[in-house]
Task: structure prediction
Amino acid sequence: MSVNGHLQHGSISLRTAYETDLGKFILGKTEDVLASKVGKQLKNKVDLIFTSPPFPLNTKKRYGNLKGDEYIQWLAGLAQPFRGLLKPKGSIVLELGNAWEQGKPVMSTLALKALLAFLEAGKFTLCQQFVWNNPAKLPSPAQWVNIERIRLKDAYTHLWWMSTTDRPYADNRQVLTAYSESMKSLLSRQSYNTGKRPSEHTIGEKSFLTDHGGAIPSNVITVANTQSNTEYMTFCRGKKLQLHPARMPPQLAEFFIKFLTKPNMMVLDPFGGSNTTGAAAEKLGRRWTAVEPNADYIEGSKGRFAKLR
Result:
C-alpha cells in the first residue's frame, strides 16, 4: 500500500489518496482527472465504467448536483471522454435516479433527457436497461407520498448499460442465481410435458432438463439498502467522518462487475463517493481506479479495505 502520490493539472493539484494491491483512489474532479496524465494512461484501457453520478435533484446535496439544462450539458460533455477510455469491447453502466418537478406531484423527464444526450454525444449503443428495486427505501417524495398521500413511494433507480459496440464483453453465466425449488424438482425428472404452448413455442421432452448451474437473472435487481453496522460505517463513526449520503449496496456493483468483466480487467468509477465500486472490484480480483473530489468521503472509504483500516 502507498499513499499521497501527486499529479499536477494546470493550477489544480490532483492527489492519489491511497492505493491497494489492485487499484487507486484519486482525489480530484472527474473532468480534471480525465484531462490529466491519469486520463491519458487510462485511454483505451478501461473494461467497465460503473458509476452513479450526482442525480439531477431539486434539493442541493453536499456531494454536488446540477439542475435542468445545466445537468444535461454536463453529463453529455462526459460522453466522449468516457468513450475514449473504453477498450473496444468495454461497457458503461450509468445509474440515474428519478427526479420530480419542483413543488409539483409530477415526475421530471430530466434524467431521460440527460441519458439521451449522453448516448447521442458518445455515439453509444444502449445494450440493456436495468432496474434497481430497493424495498427498504424510505417513502419519498415526502410531500406527495407521506403528507398528501397522492403518490406511491419512489423505490427504484435505472441502470443503463451501454457500449461503443453491439457486442461488448458480457457473460451471464457469471451471475447465475440459485434455482427455485420447482426448477430443482423439474431437473430431477426424466421427461417434461411436451407440446405447443399458447405462446406458440414448442416445448421438447428434454427442453428444460439441462442443469446449467443456476438460473439466469432478470434485469430487475432487488437489493435492500438497509446496512447499519458495516465495517465502513464503523470506521467512519470511529474516525468521526461523515457517511456518504448516497451509498449503494455492494451487491449492485458486484453484479455488474461479475457480469461485464473478468479477473484482472480494469474498472473505473469516476464518481467514487465512498468507493463501493473499488471495494467490489478488489474483492473480485479486478483492477480499479476511482475518482472523488471530497477528501472526507475518500478518508471514510478506507474503512472498506482491511489493510487501510
